[in-house]
Amino acid sequence: MSQRGVDQDVCPNPKDGGCTSSQGKQGVFYNNNIGKCTSEQVIESDELEYVAGTYIWSGFDYLGEARGWPQNTKCRGTVADVAGFTKETAYWIKSVWLSNISKSDAGRPVGVVGDAAYTTFIIESWVPPPVGSHRNINVYSNAASIRLELNGKVVGLQQVPYYAAQVTFSVAYAPGNLTAIALDASGAQVDMHSIATTGVVAAMQFTVDAPSAATGTGDAVVADGEDVAMLGIKLVDSNGLMVPGSTNNITFSVVSGPGEVYTTHNGDPANIKSNDAPWNLAYHGLARVYIRTTADHATSAEHRRRLLQIDQDSTVYVQDPDVAHAPGPADIVVAASSPGLQTVQVTIPVTADISQLPVAVAARAARLGMVAELKEVSE
């Protein structure tokens, strides 16, 4: 179990009573460094020749089964928190399984967003240590070794154990840039990841995370009265770097188009705010809003005719299929505002094409992957 954004320095002993209010904010029970635990569990299955793979429980954090109030969420997710933001362990999984599979291996997934031969990720934020003068820095990687540099000066070099996929450095803190340089067996640089000291929150970056070609989730949200878009806010400083620990209050609104604020969250397992409200506090610099379509242009003509007959008090606008030259669905424009920051907007593309629904998009991706794999095997 892990908690996004909670460095091990802040919560060093989560199994021994958790992080109390004297160690961090109330509701913090875990840290973000579970690479060693994950490695030990994976080896239990992956080292056995007669076992085909590993089943991970679970992909996402989920509501319920929490450790204790005010937490209301199970922090079991290894890929994402309850709001769908990537957790640190996802990079361990990616380095061991995706990046570690040879590109000549017919079993390697194809067409995966972010596919790369190497994964390198520093899981901490580069902020002053809560105690003392040093920070413990953990790097997940499938490279042969990691060279750590602070402001261009080498502060550590370690080989990466294959199954551990993790190295730990003790670094005297100084403001600036901390970079993990991944080296192959010959010592050549093959990858890198940098973090840096940040300033105060200066702006919001607003993105449409799904549907999005960048995340492999389609090109548009479907105007069927049910489909949902997933948007993200990142709080950044004047250099565009996410500000760790920032908790600004963010309010979302639909400016135009057939959509409504369906719910909000921030990934905090101790978030006790009503998710029906159109606002939320950021958690470690991130917040989420889900926008649901409020118009049906996409379902079958017969279905829409029946809805017009029986669902007179619906909040969903149903486009009458028998109206000639009826306008198609408009795109949805969403705004995010926060005190002291400039309001930002994004546009969600909207379509009446039901082939853009999530299951159909996933099915096409799977088929394309299988075709590509078969072609590679035949060649």
Describe the protein's architecture and organization.
By secondary structure, this protein is an alpha+beta fold. The chain folds into 2 domains: about 35-195, Immunoglobulins (Immunoglobulin-like); about 205-365, Immunoglobulins (Immunoglobulin-like). The protein contains 4 helices and 21 strands. It has helices at about 35-45, 90-100, 300-310, 360-379; strands at about 60-65, 75, 120, 135-140, 145-150, 155-160, 165-170, 175-185, 190-195, 205-210, 220, 230-235, 250-255, 260-265, 280, 285-295, 295, 315-320, 330-340, 340-350, 350. The chain has a 4-stranded antiparallel sheet, with no helix packed on it. It is globular. The model has no long low-confidence stretch (mean pLDDT about 90).
Overall mean pLDDT: 91
Global morphology: globular
Task: Say which CATH homologous superfamily of the largest domain is assigned.
Answer: Immunoglobulins
CATH fold-level assignment of the largest domain: Immunoglobulin-like
Percent helix, as a range, is: 10-25%
Lateral strand order in the biggest sheet: 6-5-8-9
List the keywords.
379 residues, alpha+beta, Immunoglobulin-like, 2 domains, 4-stranded antiparallel beta sheet, 21 strands, 14% helix
Brief summary:
The chain has 379 residues and is α+β, with helices and mostly antiparallel strands. The chain has four helices and 21 strands.
Q: What's the helix and strand layout?
A:
Blueprint: H1 35-46, E1 62-63, E2 73-74, H2 89-98, E3 120-122, E4 134-141, E5 145-150, E6 153-159, E7 166-172, E8 177-183, E9 189-196, E10 203-210, E11 221-222, E12 228-236, E13 249-256, E14 259-265, E15 279-281, E16 286-293, E17 295-296, H3 301-310, E18 317-318, E19 332-338, E20 341-348, E21 350-351, H4 358-378
Parallel strand pairs: 11-21, 17-18
Antiparallel strand pairs: 1-2, 3-4, 4-7, 5-6, 5-8, 8-9, 10-12, 12-16, 13-15, 13-19, 14-16, 19-20
